[in-house]
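Lines hold sequence, tokenised fold; shown next:
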Amino acid sequence: MQFGNSTSFWLLLLVPALAVLLVWGFRARRRALARFAAPPLVKRLADSVRPVARRWKATLIVAAVLLVALALTQPRWGFEWREVKRSGVDVAVLLDVSKSMLTEDVRPNRLEQAKYAVQDLLEKLRGDRIGLIAFAGTAFVQCPLTVDYEAFRLTLKDADPRIIPRGGTAIGVAIRTALKAFEAGEGRDHAIVLITDGEETESDALAAADEAAKAGVKIYAIGVGTAEGELIPVREEGKPMEFLKDREGAVVKSRLNEELLKQLALKTGGIYVRSVPGDFGIDTIYEKGIAQLQRKEYQAKLQKRYFERFQWPLGLAFALLVVESFVSDRRTA
């Protein structure tokens, strides 16, 4: 036996609570009647009531509540084997976690806003595999391609500049890392969602985009930040906030490099979107890009399908309530 909604077991606590309430009600009624009239009169008034019938009515109500609570746990027993087919595409999210993503020209900062957007993308996926590649001066697969969206969320939460000590923004390395991750997913369409400010410090992003195009992988780029740019804050516990400086000691201003991101998307037949307040661009990327990719069947396996049996306790509860309605606790003349 299995239960499809085991959290509803707490409703069983209502059964003893209801029983206690009914017993208290019977006793309170007797005490109130005793205060209302003298014993001989109380006996005459109580003659019209059938105590045994009243107790039976209460028992039937308690039993019905018990059965309804059991029905809400969705009991299941007995099963059949069914073939379950999955279909979808592979989506690699390339998330820039370099220090420039801490710039606050997008509130609360570029990186946190990007994480919110990836969460929105996750809500749109239906059976598609998704993976996370964090990159700065280098790149690594933080979450392999998976349909376990909760596991993906956990790795996304941990993505920040501290996980990659090497500074810089190696977009080309990140793209090639995604292409390697796709190699085990033959037979499915692949998509790269690149989220960055585009300030690449390497020189081979366009060459990597050519490799992606040859492999049939589309790059959907989202530019985060503003063309005017802003200084990059550096916050350390116990110290006043400072701004990132270069080797010469000059403060660094981070700006959005849209031109590079447009070229990356164009080379692969993808889409470039610039995020703006209130519209990060995920809806456009998904609806005009990912959703249009061909979803091919990639897995078929036998799976146990248990039969729902909640109808039995629910039907019995209804029957008990019908019976209770026909039981009279009054004596007939």
